[in-house]
Amino acid sequence: TCHTGQEKSLGSKLVPAGPREADPIAGKAPSIDLTVRAAYDAEFVYLSAGRLKRRTQSTRCGAMTASSGWLGPFFNPPKPQFMYDEKVVGFRAIPEGELQARMGQAALIEKKNAVALDPNTKFAIGDLLPQYLQREPEGSGADVQAFGRYVDGHWVVELRRKLNTGHPDDKVLRPGRAYPIGFAIFDDTVSNRRHYVTLPMSLGLGTSGDVTAAKVGP
Question: Could you tell me which of 129, 140, 114, 120 has the C-alpha nearest to residue 63?
């Protein structure tokens, strides 16, 4: 995992039950509730995870405005490089007032709906562009398929993976057994130590676990 080798140092902070965050972010909750559901069939295991309502001021977009230029916390100096392909999606940027309605179209994906930013393009005040260009995974990196949707003020993420991916770097999952599992949730455009993580958990396929996957299908 991303914290392999830090078990002793992290454990010494968790076990004494000291402050969860030495310099907490104002208004940011120290923990959040996460609902996880799981199922499996003869070929795949499925996970669905959702959390409570997201604060409205948080987006993963920056804004190109006529008055102030690019507004994005991860660009320093600001250098946007891509925009939506209008021939594919029908727009070059998302108007701020339409962001919630267009959450399902917000991802900017290489070779799908993204083109290089034309410096001569005119944007309206409040037009939004994603900060990140995404790429469809390949090979073993594509073993876990994910789908996210924004529903009733919160995100739901659905994951699917073959029980046996056929790749040597993946664990074969067998019904009747339980496996270690964990979740990390990045919220409010923060990174690294500012994200939420779960303590060690188990996923049981047809057997008891912190998350128990029910058998579906034949």
Answer: 129
Among residues 147, 34, 151, which one has the least CA distance to residue 100? 151
Strand, coil or helix: 135: coil
> Is pLDDT above 50 for 64?
no
Chain segment 147-183, per-residue pLDDT in tens = 888 777 777 899 999 999 999 989 999 999 999 998 8
Amino acid at 93: A
Distance, in Å, from the CA atom of 196 to the CA atom of 116, rounded to the nearest integer, reads 34
| Gap between the Cα atoms of 149 and 50, Å rounded | 10
Beta bridge partners of 213: 205
Q: Is 193 helix (H, G, I), strand (E, B) or coil?
A: helix
Runs of H (alpha helix) within 30-161: 86-89
pLDDT band at 197 (very low <50, low <70, confident <90, very high): confident
Torsion of CA 39, 31, 51, 187, to 10 degrees: -110
The set of residues, in sequence order, having a beta carbon less than 8 Å from that of 54 and lying 6+ positions away, is 153, 154, 155, 187
pLDDT category at 207 given cuts 50, 70, 90 is: very high
